[in-house]
Amino acid sequence: VELDLLGPWPDRGPFDVVMCHGALAGMSPKPAARLVRRFADALAPGGVMLLGPVRPDSGEMPRLEPYGPAGYRKIA
């Protein structure tokens, strides 16, 4: 199944885990920031977002805290 990450999603969550390892690396900053916010909005409280080597600006993730070497956890 193909999914356009910036287009409509068939399922909107809430999700316990979101994994996006390589997609952000090829995006320009504005779409990447929009996608990170979208992932954060789709997480359940306490849910984890794993992004791989890309580390977005912390200002783009007001409801997330660092979680491990390549992830963030939703704090509510």
Can you write the helix and strand succession as a string? Answer: EHEEE
Mean of residue pLDDT values? 83
Strand content: 25-35%
Helix count, DSSP H or I runs of 4 or more residues? 1
Kindly, what is the distance between the CA atoms of the first and last residues, rounded to a whole number of angstroms?
30 Å
| Low-confidence segments | none
**Count of individual beta strands:** 4
Radius of gyration: 11 Å
Strand order of the largest sheet: 1-2-4-3
Largest sheet: 4 strands, mixed
Percentage of residues assigned to helices = 10-25%
**Coarse structural class:** alpha+beta
Assembly form of the protein? single chain
Topology overview:
Blueprint: E1 15-19, H1 29-42, E2 43-50, E3 64-67, E4 71-74
Parallel strand pairs: 1-2
Antiparallel strand pairs: 2-4, 3-4
Characterise the protein shown here.
This protein is an alpha+beta fold. Helices cover 18% and strands 28% of the residues. It contains 1 helix and 4 strands. It has one helix at 29-42, and strands at residues 15-19, 43-50, 64-67, 71-74. It has a 4-stranded mixed beta sheet. Strand 3 and strand 4 form a beta hairpin. The longest helix is centred in the middle third of the chain and has 14 residues, at 29-42. The chain is globular and about 30 Å long.
